[in-house]
Amino acid sequence: MALHLSRQPRHIRVRYMILIMLPFWTSILVKSFALTVLLGNDGIVNQLLRWIGGPSLHFSMMFNRIGAVIGMINYLLPFMVFSILGSLLSLDQNLVKAAEVMGAGHFRIFRRVILPLSMPGVMAGIVINFTLSIGMYITPALLGGRQDMMIANLIDFYTHQSLDWAAASAIAVVLLVISGVLVALLGRVRGAQAGGRVHG
């Protein structure tokens, strides 16, 4: 998606970027409830599958890992796309043209030129998404299951249901440390990316 956007004229790219940012236009709570309408046992997706393949075609996409992952991807995808897009837009197109002149095909150009030079954006996107995902609560609570909880949901369980505040505090401290390490790592990745641009 980021590669496709980087190849578009500026005015078209802006329109696509607005569409990618649509998940940020509404509350994460509203989006999670909307996904229950789409992914439920009698939701729009399963109704469409039954219409296509018959009554026996049915997928359980609620209260399990599938629903939680779909909901989190819906929220986190723009962070990944924009991180990679920044690296792709800063890429010197003369390198691509030089590879084409030397006879490299599209796949080889992507594998040997575009992908390595866009890795700082890929790494930044991974760190951003992982940092945000480990603290997500609402989406896993509404779309995920009891047997597959995220860290924030586990803290809530120990605090409000089992009343094991010591375990909840320990998990919260671990979450805080992991988040701090990831934020520091993101700073280093961004710093290296900026340094590479200045050096280039």
Written account of the structure:
This protein is mostly helical and 200 residues long. It has one domain (2-199): Orthogonal Bundle (MetI-like fold). 76% of the residues lie in helices and 0% in strands. It is built from 10 helices and no strands. Helix 7 (106-133) runs antiparallel to helix 10 (165-199).
Question: Secondary structure elements and their pairing?
Answer:
Elements: H1 2-6, H2 10-20, H3 28-39, H4 44-53, H5 65-89, H6 93-101, H7 106-133, H8 138-143, H9 151-160, H10 165-199
Helix pairs in contact: 5-7, 6-7, 7-10, 9-10
Oligomer: single chain
Order of helices and strands: HHHHHHHHHH
Shape: globular
The H-level CATH homologous superfamily, spelled out, is: MetI-like
Structural class: mainly alpha
Average pLDDT for all residues: 83
Tally of structural domains: 1
- Helix share bin: over 70%
Measured between the Cα atoms of the first and last residue, the distance is 25 Å
Low-confidence stretches: none
How many beta-strand runs? 0
Level-2 CATH architecture: Orthogonal Bundle
Largest sheet geometry: none
Share of β-strand residues = under 5%
Task: Count every helix, treating DSSP H or I runs of 4 or more residues as helices.
Answer: 10
Give a short summary of the structure.
This protein has 200 residues and is mainly α. 76% of the residues lie in helices and 0% in strands.
Descriptive tags:
MetI-like fold, mainly alpha
